[in-house]
Amino acid sequence: MTDITKDELQSAVLNGYVDQQQNYAAAEFSPQLLNNVNQETVWEHIRYELNNCSSFTFAVAFITVDMLTPLKAVLADLKVHGVYGKILTSDYLYFNQPKVFTELLKIANVEVRIAQQSGFHAKGYLFEHTDQNYQSVIIGSSNLTRAALLQNYEWNMRFTSYAAGAVTNQISSEIAHAWEEAVPLTVQWVTRYEQLFDEKATVAAEKRVSIINEQSAPYEMQAKIIPNKMQQHALQKLQELRQTGEQRGLIISATGTGKTYLGAFDVKQFKPRRFLFVAHREQILQKSRASFRKVLGGNASDYGILSGHHADKKAKYLFATIQTLSKPDNMKYFSPEEFDYILVDEAHRTGSESYRHFLKYFKPKFCLGMTATPERTDDFNIYQLFDYNIAYEIRLQDALNEQMLTPFHYVGLQDYEYQGKLIDDKAVLRHLASAERVDYVLQQLEYYGYSGDKVHGLIFCSRQQEAYELAKIMTNRGHPTVALTDETIKTREKTITMLEKGQIEYIVTVNIFNEGIDIPCLNQIVMLRNTQSSIVFIQQLGRGLRKFAHKEFVTILDFIGNYKNNYLIPMALTGDRSRSKDNARAEISLQPTIGISTINFTEVARQQIYASLQNAKLDSLMEMRKDYYELKNKIGRVPLLRDFEKYGSIDPLVFANNNLLPNYYHFLLKMKENVKLTVYQDKVLYFLTKELLNGMRCHELLLLQELMRHGTVTEACFFKLLRSKNCYLNEDVLGSVDRILGLDFFHVKAGKEFKSVKYGGQR
Fold first, then answer.
1. Phi-psi domain of 258 (left: phi exceeds 0; alpha: psi -120 through 50; beta: other)
2. How far is it between the farthest Cα atoms of the chain?
3. Do 263 and 368 meet the contact criterion of CB atoms below 8 Å apart?
4. What's the predicted TM-score (pTM) here?
5. What does the pLDDT look like over 482-495, one tens digit per residue?
6. 10 Å Cβ neighbour count for 196?
C-alpha cells in the first residue's frame, strides 16, 4: 500500500466528508462506499487490504464455506510473510454450518473465537499497518459470505485512520472487549456445536437446503422443464435464422449450459416429422434420449437408438452413433430426405470423413450443430460446414455471469518442489509420482476443501503411468482412487458410478475426460499437469461446473510448476484472446471474479506465470496467423481490424505495437490476401496505426471519424461531440489536435517519413 503522511490523510478525509473537489495525493485513502456494483466487489477490497496489512481482525456474525476457499489462498501467502490475524464470529441463529468451523480450524495463521454477546451481528474488517501507525476499516452490511462479498447489493464504508483517531479507536476497543469475552474455537467446541446444530437448526437448515437445491438442481430434478433466459434468446435466434431461409446453424454453448435441452426445445418448436440426433458415444445417446423425452413427451417407442447394440431404425426420434450410422448399409436404409431435422452433438468433430460423408448424404430441412469448443487445431472449418450461421454463442464467462453453472473457486498454487527445484516440463516420473509429492498434494486438497460432506474429485495428470502410480499411493494414504486411461476405458462407466456413490474419492486420468462426460457430483477438480492449450484447460475445468443438489461451488486446484505455457492459464480463465501482455498481467495481478466465481493465485504461482508470460511471444506471426484464420473461418471473409475487437479476438493495439508490422495491411499481405493499397494509402494507414491507434486520448480519432462521415466539421460541432464523450477540452488540447493531424508535430520526430504523407497538400 502507498505510504501516507498525516497531511495526505487529512486531505483524503476532507475529500470524503467535506468537499469532493478537494485535491489530494493519496486517492486510495479517501472514504469510499463498497456495494458490489459496476463489477467492483467488496471481496476485491478485502483481498487488497489483506495483502497490504501487517495484521487483521474480522468481526463477522455469519461465514459460509464457499467464501473460505479464496480467503485461504490469500492467507496461505500471508503466513509465508508472517502475517497473522483474528476472526471473531458467532453461533447466532445457528446460521453458520458446522463445516465452517471445521474449515476455519485448518487455517494456521488465524485465531478464531466465538463471540458471547447475545445477538452478535457485527460485520466489520479491521486492517493494521503498524509500520505507519494507521488502520484501514471496512464496516457495514457484509458478512464473510459469497453472496455478501461478491453478489448482493451491500453498503459498506471503507476508511483509513491513524491509530489515535476516535472512531477507529472506538472500533478497536469494541473488538478487544468482545474478543476477551469470546471463547476459543476448538475441536471440542465444534463437536458440541454439531450436536446443538442438529437439534436446534434442523428445520432452518432444511429450508435453506431446499432453497439452494431448487435454485441449483439440474433439469432432471425440476418439476417443469422450461428454457432459461439464454436458451430463450437462442431459440429466438434459431427461429429468425430459419425465417431467412437458412438450412444450417451452429450453437456454441459452454459445457454444462444445457445444450441438449436447448436442442430439445428447438425440436419442439420446429415440430419435425422425423428427427435424427448424432453423437460419437452411445452413453451420450442414452442421456440425450432421456432429456429429449422429458421435453417432447410421447411414448417410449417414439424414441430409438441406432448403435452397435441397438437398431431402432424406425423410431420417430432416432439417436445414432456416427460410427454405426456412417456404415454404408445403415446409411442407405434411410432416404436423403428421411429426417426433417438433424442435430449433430459435439459438432467440432465434424471434420472427420464419417461426419462429412453423413452430412453430405442427408438433406434435412434444418441441421443444427452444437459444440462448446468450435476452435480447431487442424485446418477444418466448422463454421463453413454450417454456412457461417452462428445462431447463438454462450461462452463459459457468460454462463457463469448468468449463473447457469455451478460457480467455482480456482486456486493456482505452487507445485511440489523437489530438492529446491519446481516440477517442470521435463520432470521424470519418479518425481511426479513420488510419495513426497502426493503428500504435498493431499495437504493442499485438505486445506482448500470442497462443497458438501464428501469429496467427489477428478485429477488430471500428464502421463498414463503417472496416473496409475498416483492412484496407488493416494489409495494407500486412505483416499480411494482409481486411474482411468485409454488402456482402462472399458471400465469407465463402472468407475464413474463408484465415484458418484462415494465408493471412491478420486478418479485420476490423463485426457480421456476432456469432453463428452457428465459427472454432475464433481466438487473438486485437480490439475497436476502443464497447460498446453486454453481449449483443453477450459474443457477440463468445465467437468465440474454442472449443477447438482447440495453442490454450492467447485474447488479447482491447479498445481503450477515451472512450465513454459503457464501464461495461458489467466487468459483461459477470463476468456481473454487479445494477445496483449498488458491485459494478461492485469488478469494475474487483479485476479478478477467471474460472476460469483473467484480466481486466486498464490504468490509463488503468480510469479511462475509472470515468468512464463515474460518469455512468451503472444504477438508472434505464427500465433497471430492462427487467430486470424480462426476469425476468418468464423465470419467467412477477410476480417477488418474492427472485427477482431467485435469478436473478442486479437487486440488491435497488438498490431499497432508490433515493430515488425507497419500496419494491418502488411499483415494481410503476409497472410497472402489479395488486397492492394496505393503508396499514399499505405503511409496514411501507417500514421494512423503507429501514432493514433495506440494513443492515450480519442480526440483525433473522433475528429477523423466525423470528417469521414461528413467531409467537413465545424468547430462548434466538434466541441459538442467531445463534450458528449466526456473528453477533456481546452485551448491547449485543441491546439495539440491541430498539430497532430496537421503533422506539424511530427516534423522533428519523424522527418521525411510523415512529411511524405502530406505530399501534394493532402492531409
1. left
2. 91
3. yes
4. 0.84
5. 999 888 777 888 99
6. 12
